[in-house]
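RESIDUES AND SHAPES:
===
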Amino acid sequence: MRFRNQQIFDAHFHIIDPRFSLVPNRGYLPDRYTINDYRERTKEYDIRGGAIVSGSFQAFDQDYLVDALSRLGPGFVGVTQLPATVSDADILELDKTGVRAIRFNLKRGGSEQVTYLDSMARRVHELAGWHTELYADAQELEDLVTVLIALPAVSIDHLGLSAAGFKILLKLAEHGIRVKATGFGRVDFSVGDALKALYAANPDSLMFGTDLPSTRANRPFSDRDYQLVGEALGGQAAERVFWSNAARFYRVAA
């Protein structure tokens, strides 16, 4: 089956290259997932660009990310993890390689502590125009709502993960926070209903991604996930979620 009828910006995937060091996260190390693996899995899709996201097991390593961006080429950007002690010069150098966001992994760790969220989010945005991404169960973000909606640009991974946190996620979307329509095998609610509610709350919010290779998910990305977005939203709404919302957010030209 081919899926060439819709161009896609894959807003969330990982590259796990054994040439670069990995850090066990709570005893977990992922299997390899190279650029070739990614290209083979997505060859039936019209992917024009995407965001390579640093995982907990990559910690503050930048070498794998810079290498992957150099080989994937135009249209692809990076989401990295950085310590609060990173220099302005290093941020600007990473920006030149295609990095466009900083990630805080509240769910798994491996990133900087959340106490630095506000200051680092403002710093990287002012310095390089980057946004901030959070991997977190939305029900754990209640105390951060005021902080998050005051930041210049933020996204939340994997539909916020939980039904218990969906009202909080919806509130964040209403206030301009972006939400990644990714990791459908990680959530405990109806994805179709969630997509409709989030799109109604803010048509600019949702951004589709494959979440490949779906490390530690209950199930990996499937072609059915792609089809579900189209069925739930359809037409112009699906186009925005598959392409234009993320292309604008990550500052990638059509």
Q: What stands out?
A: The longest helix spans residues 235-249. The mean pLDDT is 94.
